Amino acid sequence: MAVTETQFSVTDAFSGEDLLEKCSFQNQFDIIFLDTEMTGINGLETADELRKKGVKSIIIFISAHNHYVFDSFKYEAFHFMLKPLKEDEFDDVFLRAIRKYKNENPDIMLKWQNDRYVIPIHKITFIEGYQRHIMVHTDHEVFESIGKISDMLNELEVHGFIRVHQGFLVNMAYIKSFDNNDIILRNNMKVMISIRKRAEALKAYDTYFEKWKK
User: Fold this and answer.
1) What is the rounded CA–CA span in Å between residue 214 and residue 25?
2) d(CA 37, CA 63)
């Protein structure tokens, strides 16, 4: 795989503040190239704010000063590149970052009549299912598919999904809060939770939060 053979879209940010406005937990970039020195807050401060917001993007720092390299480790930087950039080095780092992203963010394929959809699992917020018909929700789209909710749970439980009702699975990464009858997601959508599943779901979320949200 070469950079020229890889499809991707690029978004510019002209300052750390600009990037923080464009990037959030619900709207994350897969890979971020971040200069350590920018107008306004610097790259390290920007990375700190991104991590505080729960952004898990792969961050690659670019700098003219190698003394920033040790500070970059605080923000789980994938790589630190010194200016002037070399094309071969850039291509190598970029491709390794793409491989890391794909390894850590597997896809799922959904089938509906003659259509096939490939969706990154981490972008699924919740799934609803009735008999052999399921609806897969992301922040911006809903996909219909043939399948059973129990089969989806078997496939997605390892990725942080829990069953909160006979007809609903929820991605715990998107849970904002619980109330008496519903789970509130980060996009403010509500998913029904059954009384029978509530205690189990709360216990699973507590465990998930301790493991992944430190």
Assistant:
1) 15
2) 7
Model's pTM, two decimal places? 0.71
Write the CA distances from 41 to 16, 27, 46, 188, integer angstroms: 6, 21, 6, 30
Neighbour-count burial of 56, counting CB atoms closer than 10 A to its CB (0-12 exposed, 13-18 middle, 19+ buried)? middle
Return the H-helix or E-strand segment holding 94. Answer: helix 87-104
Region 64-68: mean pLDDT is 93
- 126: phi then psi, degrees, rounded to nearest 5: -160, 165
166 φψ region: left (φ > 0), alpha (ψ -120 to 50), beta (else): alpha
Phi, psi of 14 (to 5 degrees): -100, 0
Q: CA–CA separation, 71 vs 59, rounded Å? A: 13
The answer to whether residues 112 and 95 touch, using CB atoms and an 8 Å cutoff, is no
Of 125, 122, 120, 124, the closest CA to residue 190 belongs to 125
- Asked if 199 contacts 207 with a C-beta cutoff of 8 angstroms, the reply is no
Question: Residue 173 in 3-state DSSP?
Answer: helix
Query: Does the pLDDT value for residue 65 go beyond 70?
Result: yes
Token pair belonging to 49: 């704010």
Structural tokens at position 121 = 């699992």
